[in-house]
Amino acid sequence: MNHFFIIEHLEKEMYEWCLIEYKHISQAVGKKNLWFTNIPKKDRKKLAKYGSVFTESVTSMHLKNACVLDPEANKLLSPRDKSRFQYFILGGILGDDPPQKRTGPELSRFLPEAVKRHIGDRQMSTDNAVYTAQQILRGKAFRKLAFIDTAEVTINKVESILLPYRYNLVHGKSYISPKLIHYLKKKESF
C-alpha cells in the first residue's frame, strides 16, 4: 500500500519557517507521497515543487484508511499500522512553548472518522513528526528511535538558540534542516 503524508496547513500565513519544514518533509518522503491541504491560492506555487497542493481542507476530502497524528491520542503509532492506514494527516502548526495543544481542536475534531495515533508525549516540529512516523512505518518501534528534547543551534561564538521541541537524532545529530539553521542564524530577533 502506498502511503501519503498530508500536512493540513493551520497557520494564518505561509511563514518562511513553514516553507523550510515543508521542503524538508518533501526531501524525506518524496514529492509523490506528500500532500499539502488548506493552502491559500496565493501560496500554491510556493509548495507545488514539494508535493501535491490543495486549497481545500483535508476535513472535506472524506478519506478512507486515514490516521491523524495527534499528540493527545490514546494509542501510539506502531509498525503494524503500516498495513491499516494509507493516509497520515498532520497539522502544519508552528509550535509554542509551552504547547498550545492545537491539533485536537483545529484538526482531529473535524475528522471523526479518522483513527488517532500519537508519536510520543513531546511536541515535535512538523518535519520531525513526519520523519518519526516514516521510521515507524518502515518497521522501527517508537522505543528504538533516538531523540533529543531540546536542540541547541549555535548562532555565533557567544549566542545560541534553544529549540524546546523533540528532534530525532540521526547519526548523532538533531534532525534539523540545514536551511532552518541558516534561517535562524540570519534572523535578527525572536
Description:
With 190 residues, this protein is of the alpha/beta class. It has one domain (4-143): 3-Layer(aba) Sandwich (Alpha/beta knot). 23% of the residues lie in helices and 22% in strands. The chain is built from five helices and eleven strands, in the order E-H-E-H-E-E-E-H-E-H-E-E-E-E-E-H. The chain has helices at 16-29, 44-48, 103-106, 126-137, 178-186, and strands at 4-9, 34-37, 52-53, 66-69, 87-92, 115-117, 147-148, 151-154, 160-163, 167-170, 173-174. Strands 3-2-1-5-4-6 form a six-stranded parallel β-sheet. It has a three-stranded antiparallel β-sheet with strand order 7-10-11, covered by helices on one side. The chain has a two-stranded antiparallel sheet with strand order 8-9. Helix 1 runs parallel beside helix 4. The model has no long low-confidence stretch (mean pLDDT 93).
List keywords for this structure.
3-stranded antiparallel sheet, 190 residues, alpha/beta, 6-stranded parallel sheet
Radius of gyration from the CA trace? 16 Å
Tell me the helix content. Answer: 10-25%
Query: What global shape is seen?
Result: globular
Q: Span from first to last CA?
A: 43 Å
Task: Describe what is shown at a glance.
This protein has about 190 residues and is an alpha/beta fold. Helix content is about 25%, strand content about 20%.
Layout of secondary structure:
Layout: E1 4-9, H1 16-29, E2 34-37, H2 44-48, E3 52-53, E4 66-69, E5 87-92, H3 103-106, E6 115-117, H4 126-137, E7 147-148, E8 151-154, E9 160-163, E10 167-170, E11 173-174, H5 178-186
Parallel strand pairs: 1-2, 1-5, 2-3, 4-5, 4-6
Antiparallel strand pairs: 7-10, 8-9, 10-11
Helix pairs in contact: 1-4
